[in-house]
Design a protein that fits this description.
Helices cover 31% and strands 25% of the residues. With 465 residues, it is α/β, with parallel strands linked by helices. It starts with a strand and ends in a 19-residue tail after the last helix.
């Protein structure tokens, strides 16, 4: 029997692939340098090791690694020397695409939630649907579901150039922003050399779909893919094929009407807040409809959808303060989340963790501008995600820019932010932690869910965004 080893198995999407392979009868093992919730892996009979060792690659047929793992990693070197096949995570996902018809959902923002929404709809219509997701969906207790039906709903990470080679039954592009672009920096893990390189990869992914669903309201995306004969669009603006109208936003949800080709005007209700979630839901509905299903019978399931892990994840209330965590780390995402936060009518106190040195170096002014929508901002140390520090880049740049804008701001770390907020929580506050790293620990600690020194898992994504 073939044996597969996963390097960096702690990430949700890597766990999802490991569990799929185990379900198909392979012997599976995995390792990661950090602590993570491995209970589901172990229950499935997957051997999990903490830390890395070239010996992990001995006797295996295939080694799969995440983008965070460099090509010269000792386990990968040992695997190649032993004659084992070595694949990136996206390449293994491509093999799954060959076993099912896939709704492949990509884009800079919103792909996890859009995938979760599409999976929620399709599971209500076809319970044998398979799912591969880079975040935790409570309905499937993680990021994975193995089904025997025709369709696989999968999140596709655009930060890996290999996504361009995936062939989807329905390809979805939620948007396309200038992210994971290195510019003059040499780093290429999770990075393109230029925005044009990213757009070229997105065009190839879109062109390979039997059908394509894209956001009409994202001008650069429309310019890129609207000419493709299989393309249909969704959006709020005139000209969208799946047109959203009559939006009513509330503090904890929304309603809207969507009309599309072969889909009469339909009222949709969401229990997750923000205009951005209206877009996510419209994309999910359009994708499921393009897959050949009438989405209307599944709308009650969508109405009950409360999000995926680390996307507007409500940890609870304390002393009248609402505590929320979100994966937002790009300026566009931070702006959208804080718009939703302001819609609650509460005083917004944000804990912002800049993610990756290169992104911070290139985007810190935009990040500060987005964060200025909060009433108060605590800026944590930069979450490196394996990157080397960049000279003259620090959280102080963001703090000082916020202060110049008249926003109350200060630098902090996980411990000092938790202590400060613990001592100053007030009725009517909304504390929201923002970032793709471990900033969620502040929310968990404030909600009383994290014991001192605990390793509670956030139920979120891989932290590689």
């Amino acid at each position: 029997m073939s044996t597969i080893h996963f390097v960096g198995v702690g990430g949700v999407s890597m766990q999802a692939l490991a569990l799929w392979c185990r379900h198909e009868g392979f012997e599976v093992s995995g390792c990661d340098s950090g602590t993570f919730d491995d209970a589901r892996l172990r229950r499935a009979g997957i051997e999990v090791c903490t830390g890395h060792d070239p010996a992990h690659a001995h006797g295996v047929s295939l080694v799969v690694h995440s983008m965070a793992v460099p090509a010269d990693h000792p386990e990968l070197v040992a695997a190649r020397a032993a004659g084992a096949r070595v694949l990136r995570r996206i390449e293994l996902l491509g093999e799954l695409f060959g076993r099912r018809r896939a709704i492949g959902i990509s884009g800079t923002h919103g792909k996890s939630t859009t995938t979760g929404m599409a999976a929620t709809l399709l599971l209500a219509l076809d319970p044998d649907t398979s799912v591969q997701l880079g975040a935790s969906l409570p309905a499937i207790e993680g990021g994975y579901r193995y089904g025997t039906g025709e369709w696989l709903v999968a999140e596709v990470d655009e930060s890996d150039p290999g996504f361009a080679d995936l062939h989807s039954g329905v390809a979805v592009l939620t948007n396309l922003d200038e992210d994971h672009v290195a510019g003059d920096f040499e780093e290429r893990r999770n990075y393109y050399g230029s925005y044009d390189d990213l757009k070229a990869a997105a065009l190839k992914f879109a062109s390979s779909g039997e059908r394509l669903v894209y956001c009409h309201d994202w001008p650069s995306l429309t310019e890129l893919v609207a000419h493709l004969p299989q393309a249909v669009s969704f959006g709020l603006q005139e000209g969208a094929d799946y047109r959203v109208t009559d939006i009513a936003l509330a503090g904890s949800g929304s309603t809207f009407v969507i009309t599309g080709p072969g889909l009469p005007a339909t009222t949709v209700r969401l229990a997750v807040p923000g205009r951005y979630n209206v877009y996510n839901a419209a994309g999910a509905i359009a994708a499921v409809h393009q897959a050949g299903y009438d989405p209307r019978p599944a709308l009650p399931a969508l109405e009950a959808f409360l999000g995926v892990g680390r996307r507007w994840q409500v940890w609870g209330e304390r002393q009248g303060a609402l505590i929320v965590d979100d994966y937002a780390h790009h300026p566009t995402e931070v702006a959208a989340i804080l718009e939703a936060a302001r819609g609650t009518g509460r005083r917004v106190r944000a804990v912002l963790q800049p993610h990756r040195w290169i992104r911070t170096a290139r985007q810190w002014p935009e990040l500060a501008a987005a964060a200025s929508a909060a009433d108060e901002v605590l800026v944590l140390d930069i979450y490196a995600a394996g990157e080397k520090p960049v000279a003259n880049v620090s959280p102080a740049l963001i703090v000082n820019r916020l202060k110049e804008s008249g926003v109350e701001a200060r630098a902090a770390n996980l411990e000092s932010a938790t202590d400060y907020l613990n001592d100053s929580l007030a009725q009517g506050d909304l504390v929201i932690t923002l970032g793709a790293g471990d900033v969620w620990r502040v929310a968990a600690a404030l909600a009383g869910a994290l014991r001192q020194g605990g390793d509670l898992a956030p139920g979120g994504a891989d932290g590689q965004g």
